[in-house]
Design the sequence.
């Protein structure tokens, strides 16, 4: 059955027309979906019962409750949606008045980065716009959310049409009415789609970089062989960054692989002249992987060396590691089967 969640007011206009409702009802339905964020047709109280019954006979709302909820000792909350291979996870990260949702765009991932638990589990399907937006609507903290990062399961640019539709709903005046500055979309650098994103969207961009040397990056990130990081950075460099959109580069630190002075200097050369930020991320150990995380002192020295070369750099705090909600650990049923899910 077709879902209402993710539809524009124009598309909802066709829906209400099909149901024999007045044209203005499209705006009412949009407000219930995106402002009130209802979880059932019965909550649409200014729409007649007969009209609600027609809607529910022909359409699904598109909202489904999470199957499980796990709470970290640091307040981070991980949600599991669905079951079986197609299950997904998303993470709510509280930080004072800020409340960020780490959103999944796919079940699994095709990119096969060797250090990522999501990639290890293979690809199980794209989420539609409703599946993406449901993560915002069905969690307990829905109305508290202030920001979103598309850094959960999947490669957002491998499912760009659905991600683009979700971004439209999130930022449109008739939708969530969020500023694009509240949203960051992450990618490992799918060049053809990256070009579209830079032309079409106003949200922030984060690129998963992890190594400035192409031949080394290709060891852990097969995408490097198709879309080299140098070409990704060159495309970003040509973009107009005069507005308020920002670009950042994610750099997970692996002991003995990408944390030397040589790597810091090469990264500074790669990014020189580009107004950006580098976020250093502590690697979270996974089974059967040859590298561990860099020591805190090594990460600090790496940060300071980048800073001395004019690159803004921060060390990102790790959140939710005890519930397998930290960077690279989202694996839905893989974690559950291994006893990692806690409620």
Sequence:
């Amino acid at each position: 059955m077709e879902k209402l969640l993710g539809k524009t007011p124009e598309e909802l206009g066709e829906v209400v027309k099909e149901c024999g409702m007045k044209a203005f009802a499209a705006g009412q339905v949009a407000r219930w979906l995106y402002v009130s964020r209802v979880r059932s047709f019965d909550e649409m109280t200014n729409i007649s019962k007969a009209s609600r019954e027609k809607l529910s006979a022909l359409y699904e709302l598109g909202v489904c409750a999470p199957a499980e909820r796990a709470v970290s000792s640091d307040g981070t909350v991980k949600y599991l949606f669905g079951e079986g291979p197609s299950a997904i996870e998303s993470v709510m990260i509280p930080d004072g008045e800020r409340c960020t949702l780490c959103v999944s765009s796919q079940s699994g991932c095709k990119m096969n980065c060797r250090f990522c638990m999501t990639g290890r589990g293979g690809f199980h399907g794209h989420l539609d716009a409703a599946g993406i937006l449901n993560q915002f609507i069905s969690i307990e903290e829905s109305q508290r959310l202030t920001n979103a990062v598309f850094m959960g399961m999947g490669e957002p640019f491998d499912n760009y049409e659905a991600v683009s539709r979700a971004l439209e709903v999130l930022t449109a005046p008739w939708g969530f009415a969020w500023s694009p500055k509240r949203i960051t979309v992450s990618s490992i650098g799918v060049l053809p789609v990256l070009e579209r994103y830079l032309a079409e969207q106003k949200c922030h961009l984060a690129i998963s970089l992890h190594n400035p040397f192409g031949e080394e990056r290709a060891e852990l990130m097969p995408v490097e062989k198709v879309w080299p990081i140098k070409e990704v950075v060159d495309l970003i460099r040509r973009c107009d960054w005069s507005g308020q959109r920002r670009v950042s580069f994610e750099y997970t630190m692996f002991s003995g692989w990408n944390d030397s002075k040589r790597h810091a200097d090469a990264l500074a050369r790669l990014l020189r002249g580009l107004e950006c930020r580098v976020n250093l991320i502590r690697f979270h150990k996974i089974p059967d992987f040859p590298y561990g995380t860099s020591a805190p002192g090594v990460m600090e020295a790496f940060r300071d060396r980048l800073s001395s070369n004019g690159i803004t750099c921060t060390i990102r705090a790790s959140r939710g590691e005890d519930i397998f909600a930290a960077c690279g650990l989202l694996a839905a049923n893989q974690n559950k089967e291994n006893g990692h899910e806690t409620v």
